[in-house]
Amino acid sequence: MIVLPVGAGIALAGPAWVHLPLVATWWTGYLAFYATGLWLRSRRRPRYLPPVRVYGTATAALGLALLVLAPHLAWWALPFAPLVAVTLWSSAHRRDRSLLNGAVTVLAAGLTAAVAYDAGTSGHGGLWSTGWLAAGATTALPGASPDGSLTGWAWAWLVTALLTAYFLGTILYVKTNIRERGNRAYLLASVGFHLLGAAGTAALAAAGTLTAAHAGVWVALAARTVAVPVLAARRGRPVRPMALGLGEVVLSVLVTLTLLLG
């Protein structure tokens, strides 16, 4: 989750030197966020504070270097700030395993695809040079859907949305197999979410906007939300977390590749 979205954004825009401090800031920031969450969950015990200071200082230094190279990226603090605030609040109240916390963490990770694209295209493409209004671009931007109907930021946002949707779906899927195993409501939510994703991507594939391969991956995602919990229930024992994790590594790579190589 901390690799594929930002990697997809880099691939869409084309690698640039600015991506090095961007990735360093993102990964170090994630470590700072994790360390801070652990400190908050421990009720601010002093022994958990040193990693917060180390990673926090490193993130601040790298972030400053990034803003010197790409000052237009500063605006991204606006959507990220409330997401970080919610997840830190969740940690402080020991709700770090809640759906809300999982969702905002995924949203933040998913947005890095758009941030990396913005960095790689030097802020071209629309309102405040952020690409929100793709029609504002004066030069052609990289990236296009298989049929060419979506280009530049329009395609980058769809890729961002689909990657984010995949990782949001994994929250429900993993919970139905571990913490919420046997919870019918979670199972139905997981299956329903993935069926909507499969239907949506199938419609876009039929229109030529996405590849049939990507839609096929979503069909597989929907199928595993039913098959894995049902098979585990019949065997009378849960699926091992390691097996779930390895399966999601493969599927996440397939989701990404079928978007980028269409």
From TrEMBL:
UniProt KW keywords: Membrane, Transmembrane, Transmembrane helix
TM segment ranges: 20-40, 52-69, 75-92, 99-117, 154-174, 186-206, 212-231, 243-261
Lineage top rank: taxon: Bacteria
Name of this chain's protein: YwiC-like protein
Species this protein is from: Georgenia muralis
